[in-house]
Specification:
Blueprint (H helix, E strand, L loop, with lengths): L11 E5 L2 E5 L8 E2 L4 E10 L2 E7 L10 E4 L6 H13 L2 E13 L4 E11 L8 E7 L11 H12 L3
Parallel strand pairs: 4-8
Antiparallel strand pairs: 1-2, 2-3, 4-5, 4-6, 5-9, 7-8
Length: 160
């Protein structure tokens, strides 16, 4: 954002609440660009045989991850998990449980992760072009974003 959406002045860095933030330099306007993180819901979708790991059409060929989607305004995060499971995989969510909430500063997001037990026939939507079912013991989480949720969930699977 280059200009204030309230008065059209050029946005500038200002000291606001003891922090350097971007905002309108006109004290009469007072607009602050808070740049709050975007809420994203992640689903560790478990089906018979393991966890669905999917490939997004825009990703490098070898990277597969769990399913994610943006939380709609006014939507309950758990309902978002159910909706995204259906939209992206065509699977019915049978059970959902919260895994945790994770920062993802690289994308200015906060991730709300759920474990979803699901059933049905997988049919990928236009965002995905491949998937594989991976046994929990064979999942190798990455050290950020949804990988943190996978790490926590896998810990709960040990001995179960």
């Amino acid at each position: 954002m280059n200009f204030c959406p309230q008065c059209a002045s050029p946005i500038a860095e200002r000291l606001i609440d003891s922090e350097i933030r971007k905002g309108c330099p006109d004290p009469a306007c007072g607009f602050v660009l808070w740049n709050n993180p975007v809420p994203v819901v992640a689903m560790i979708v478990e089906v018979e045989g393991g966890v669905v790991m999917a490939h997004n059409v825009t990703w490098p060929k070898t990277f597969y991850s769990i399913i994610t989607g943006f939380l709609e305004a006014g939507e309950d995060p758990e309902e978002c998990a159910r909706r995204e499971t259906m939209e992206e995989l065509n699977l019915h969510a049978l059970e959902t449980s919260l895994v945790g909430v994770y920062p993802f500063a690289q994308q200015n997001q906060v991730i709300i992760a759920y474990h979803v037990k699901a059933a049905g026939e997988i049919k990928l939507n236009h965002e995905l072009d491949d998937y594989k079912i991976v046994a929990p013991a064979d999942i190798k989480p990455w050290p950020m974003g949804t990988g943190l949720a996978l790490t926590d969930w896998i810990k709960t699977q040990i001995g179960s």
